[in-house]
Amino acid sequence: MREVAILGVGLTPIDEHWDRSIIDLAGEAIRPALEDAGVERVDSLIVANMLAATGSDGGQLNLGAQIADWRGLRGIEAYKVEAACGSGGAAFRAGLAAVASGQLDVALVVGVEKMSETEASTTTAGLATAADADYESAHGPSFIALNALLMRRYLHVYGWRHEDFAPFSINAHANAARNPMARLHRSITMEDYQRARMICDPISLLDSSPIGDGAAAVVLGPAAALGAGGRRKRVTVVGSAAATDSLAIHDRKQPLRLAAAERSCRRAYAQAGLGPQDIDLFELHDAFSIMAALSLEAGGFAEPGQGPRLGLDGAILPTGRLPVATHGGLKARGHPVGATGVYQIAEVARQLWGEAGSNQVSPARIGMAQNIGGSGATILTHILRAS
Amino acid sequence: MREVAILGVGLTPIDEHWDRSIIDLAGEAIRPALEDAGVERVDSLIVANMLAATGSDGGQLNLGAQIADWRGLRGIEAYKVEAACGSGGAAFRAGLAAVASGQLDVALVVGVEKMSETEASTTTAGLATAADADYESAHGPSFIALNALLMRRYLHVYGWRHEDFAPFSINAHANAARNPMARLHRSITMEDYQRARMICDPISLLDSSPIGDGAAAVVLGPAAALGAGGRRKRVTVVGSAAATDSLAIHDRKQPLRLAAAERSCRRAYAQAGLGPQDIDLFELHDAFSIMAALSLEAGGFAEPGQGPRLGLDGAILPTGRLPVATHGGLKARGHPVGATGVYQIAEVARQLWGEAGSNQVSPARIGMAQNIGGSGATILTHILRAS
Question: How far apart are CA A101 and CA A44, in angstroms?
Fold first, then answer.
């Protein structure tokens, strides 16, 4: 298996881009990614997208060929990967395999999502397709309701108070305030968190990530082609693993454990020859604050039920021992669902290159990105290393 | 890059399976595929599906994790690949890269589609998402209308008569009549073809493939693990390539050339060190009879404009020099869109193992499968070899 490096990344700001199509957004991430990588052609385009088929405008499949054509890449291989909100991580892993195998040399992974809809109910219905249609969605819960069940249970079992989750959101907002690509640029206080409107008890507005329109692109190639003494550090993928769990949360023996995260972390750590103590920063999937806590526990950074402690003791801050959501996370950078996993990889790469600007943390030699599809059903863990 | 072998295949009959869900169908292909391969566990499930997100029942994404869970594989990696009707071939290629790279050892690729809908218009609208939503579908043409434009132009430019395409359909129906998995079991005559109801001039009912519900599964693993002297010949993937073209057919300089097929064939031939003269059978993508002709030309089996000649001179028959649609093809085996590419691979493998029953052709040492997404937008070509 060839060692694979990140050659370049490109991002769009996450916002309500009413004036841009999916193709436009993809192009605005692809162009800077190719420039950053210093390549003009790629062999394959893998698109990560969740909702383009379900939009109120009638839907578009075959996005791979369409984006390749309209972004000046007509003729290359292209297809789409979907694993709900885990689409970005899954597409990255597919690109990784293609390059590692020698099937091709340069792969472009672009995550793109357009979620602004005239009717918010269209987006809510689209997101519900990540849950089990027969055994969950059919009974009416939205995606946030499923996460609220988890958080309610967690508070009950472990005895935390709602405000103990505030540090996750406060950290994410503070980091996003310095990230020009982020959806939200307002720092928040504990008082803001406590006064926030309740959306689905116990999940308030400030426990929830905002959706948005955006695209992120990553160019992958063989590490050997980079040569020595380039303009920046070499960032390679040293761990990559994926695992699943039941879609329906009621069908898990331990609903408060992210079994798929535990499994994929274990494998990724083993591949990299590393453990949680070696990770300098962690881009976790904080779609809701409860998911931040569960991810930290699954990754071995905290014991089960103790995730909130890493927030309360400041470990997750940019200056802490395990910075998370360094560019704002899903919570405040924004969560354009199918694109999120690619944003995470790009953010880790920028940290490892030392190009994260005012979001830079130090040290930043080894970073982890974890992308979740559904309420923990599909989880992809990647470890990147600078050398 | 490790050499990759087909370890086993499994198929469901293609029909209107009103009593089965997508999960049921997937399971009915997965179970026999795992038995055929002699494995109980796999490392990864890659689902090929086009329409589950757009169905009238509200849609289901995250199919990878869902199918893995319900078919007894909870915990393994899983995600979905989509490239419209080319989804099956694209998923197979992703599985191939995963095994070839050493990222994992055993991959299960399952193509599954459920197209029976109370309202046929739902399926027609779903299929239209393979075309360009802004520049084709917005103007109203269904998918068959786009193919009719191509066929009309082809008849005009090259001077063929409509009935010159009859041999493609007659051959497909005759082969399907002997295949228990096929959707249609009625042989047809030239008279049937000529009297067939016109659907979208010049495409008649007997130029068109029937949709259907069905699933096909293929298990992939490293060829080296097979050892010597197994119960059957070793079937390995010796060529794999994908290419794209514009989604919109009006946007191609030569709409009567399948540029993406030419490109992917050229690459697959080069990888295999083979040419069209070496191919013993060809599972082509005859969604409409015009596509059979264009595929034969793109594959180098006929000069541009001369595809129908291979039908008229009997070359495509099971006894001819290039048997096509040996199990009935899309035309009569049926076209459960996202699953079709996996059916094709499974059919080629069975031919090369000599396990194609009354559909067996001889010689069958090298077989090619070609899967098309959209009206030629995404084309995947695979060459398999028995040894």
Answer: 13
Rounded to an integer, what distance in angstroms lies between the CA atom of residue A171 and that of residue A176? 9
Main-chain dihedrals φ then ψ at residue A175, nearest 5 degrees: -70, -40
Average pLDDT, chain B: 96
Q: Note if B285 is an active site residue.
A: no
In the residue annotation, B335 being an active-site residue is answered as: yes
Yes or no, beta carbons of A65 and B378 under 8 Å apart: yes
ipTM confidence score: 0.97
Residue type, A6: I
Locate the DSSP E strands across A278-345: 281-283
Q: Which of A244, A262, A265, A381 to mutate to test the interface with B (most CBs of B within 10 A)?
A: A244
Torsion over CA: A45, A46, A47, A53 (sign): positive
Q: Looking at chain A from residue 120 to 149, which residues have their Cβ under 8 Å from any Cβ of chain B?
A: 125-126, 128-134, 137
Q: Cβ of B83 and A78 within 8 Å?
A: yes
Per annotation, catalytic residue among B173, B285, B335, B382? B335
CA distances from A160 to A154, A201, A255, B122 (A): 8, 15, 17, 48
Query: pTM (2 decimals)?
Result: 0.97
Nearest chain B residue (CA) to A84: B62
Best residue of A62, A137, A382 to probe chain B, by most B CBs closer than 10 Å = A62
A69 with B100: Cβ contact below 8 A: no
Residues of A in contact with B57 (CB under 8 A): 133
Q: Does A36 touch chain B (CB under 8 A)?
A: no
Whether B241 contacts B97, CB under 8 Å:
no
| Cβ of residue A223 closer than 8 Å to a chain B Cβ | no
Distance CA A350, CA A216 (A): 13
Give the mean model confidence (pLDDT) for residues B185-209: 98
Is A207 in contact with A18 (CB distance < 8 Å)?
Answer: no
3-state secondary structure of B187: coil
Pairing of strands B107-113, B198-200: unpaired
Q: How far is it, in rounded angstroms, from Cα A246 to Cα B31?
A: 19
How remote is the C-alpha of A70 from its chain's centroid?
26
B190 CB within 8 Å of a chain A CB:
no
DSSP, collapsed to helix, strand or coil, labels residue A238 as: strand
Closest CB from B21, B65, B259 relative to A378: B65
pLDDT of B305-352, one tens digit each?
999 999 999 999 999 999 999 999 999 999 999 999 999 999 999 999
Count other C-beta atoms under 10 Å from residue A1's C-beta: 15
Q: Report the C-alpha gap between B384 and A128 in whole angstroms.
A: 40
Q: Do B62 and A78 touch (CB under 8 A)?
A: no
Confidence of residue B227 (pLDDT cuts 50, 70, 90): confident
Q: Which pLDDT band holds residue A58 (cuts at 50, 70, 90)?
A: low
User: Burial of A53 by CB count in 10 Å (0-12 exposed, 13-18 middle, 19+ buried)?
Assistant: buried
User: Residue A57 to residues A130, A384, B179: CA-CA distances in angstroms?
Assistant: 20, 38, 40
Peptide bond into B202 cis (omega under 30): yes
Least Cα separation, residue B43 to chain A (angstroms) = 9
Question: Cα separation of A7 and A226, whole Å?
Answer: 8
Give the other-Cβ count within 10 Å of B233's Cβ. 16
Residue in chain A lying closest to B90 (CA): A79
Instruction: Confirm or reject contact between A80 and chain B (CB < 8 A).
Output: yes
Q: What pLDDT does A62 receive?
A: 95
